[in-house]
Amino acid sequence: MKKHLFGLLLFAPCLAYAQAPLSYTIKGTMGKQSAPAKIYLTSAGLLMDSTALKNGAFEFKGTTDFPKQATLIVHRNGKPTLDFFNSSNRTDLFLEPGPIVVTSPDSLPNAKLTGTQLTADYNKLQASLKPITDKMNALGAEYGKASEAERKTPAFQERIRTAGQNAFKDVVLRQKEFIKANPTSWVSLSLLPQLGMMEPPQYAEVAPLYNALSPTLKNSAPGIQYGKLVQNLKDVAIGVQAPNFSQKTPEGKVVSLADYRGKYVLVDFWASWCGPCRQENPAVTKVYNAFKSKNFDVLGVSLDDEKGRAKWLKAIQDDKLAWTQVSDLRGWENEVARSYHVQAIPQNFLIDPTGKIVAANLKGEELQATLARLIK
């Protein structure tokens, strides 16, 4: 689960970035819809503009500090709900100089976008992702059709979870391929933080992608911001000495990472309120039971806060977590999470007997296979 909308906020306007504003124009038609139907232009979770549809036609004009991703959202009654940003009647685009043309017979998901270079770049990206998104939609439809009893079976849950994880991995792979092939496109820069929405970023993976971007992109406000993230990730890259830390167990005992020197230890960041973390706990338990007698242990670091202490303790009991748990109960301000630059959970780091990080973000079968390879 995400600490915040990092990928979106990264592209919010930055006052430190000084250049002449770029003018954009968006023109479109949406069938024959008219008022009260309205269309909204948003970016970085903020409403930028809105206008009523007139016989399906609309137009937006404005300026932007740099090319950025934005979203069009339609509400047919002109009254956005509390779930405004989750509306399915939407489409993404990139603001840049030149007319962006949006044409649809009925709704934004069916819209065709043309007119600018970044629009062409984004269309190319979406075309490469379509086979994967089709699979994900089919997976969602299958889950929706399943009975409540079927959804509760371990076999069904495991199959859906594995298929979903594989689909996300495929999306990340396609996005990385696009970035490598298009180092001068602002679409590539926008994708880098989105990779972190799919899975916690690793220095060895994102640093080469970032370093290959054009100087124009790297010297922009969002480029500089992402560059700082890359530098932070270097502190916990594969092969470096893991930052030492000490925190208290629920009983008040101080436990240090140094206490685990001489064995493999999985430092597992989680929280009682994190659904994906709780779903992953059975897999970690399975691996723990298989390797606990083979020079391996797990150290859980909770991102619960003081108010959630009781829920943290209950989650440990309910999930039958047999390994040591620590926390300073400061939520996302957890000192260990900050030193490991944790932006999302679940996240883990596998540390070898010498104290070096040898792997990260291992789940399920991948975790088991890695330990089997390392621990003879």
Explain what you see.
This protein is of the alpha+beta class. The chain is built from twelve helices and 15 strands. The protein has helices spanning 6-9, 117-145, 148-151, 154-181, 186-198, 203-211, 215-218, 221-233, 275-291, 309-318, 335-339, 364-374, and strands at residues 22-30, 38-43, 46-52, 57-64, 68-75, 90-95, 98-104, 112-114, 246-248, 254-256, 264-270, 296-302, 324-326, 347-351, 357-360. The strands form four sheets. A five-stranded mixed beta sheet has the order 13-12-11-14-15, covered by helices on one side. Strands 4-1-7-8 form a four-stranded mixed beta sheet. A four-stranded antiparallel beta sheet has the order 3-2-5-6. A hairpin with a 2-residue loop joins strand 2 and strand 3 (46-52). Helix 2 packs antiparallel against helix 4 (154-181).
- The value of Rg in angstroms is 23 Å
Instruction: Tell me how many strands there are.
Output: 15
* Distance between the ends: 34 Å
What is the structural class? alpha+beta
- Overall helicity: 25-40%
Poorly predicted parts: 1-18
- Helix-strand string: HEEEEEEEEHHHHHHHEEEHEHEHEEH
- What's the helix count? 12
Strand percentage lies at 15-25%
Anisotropy-based shape: globular
Oligomer kind? single chain
Largest sheet: 5 strands, mixed
Q: Within the largest sheet, what's the order of strands? A: 13-12-11-14-15
Q: Calculate the mean pLDDT score and round it.
A: 90
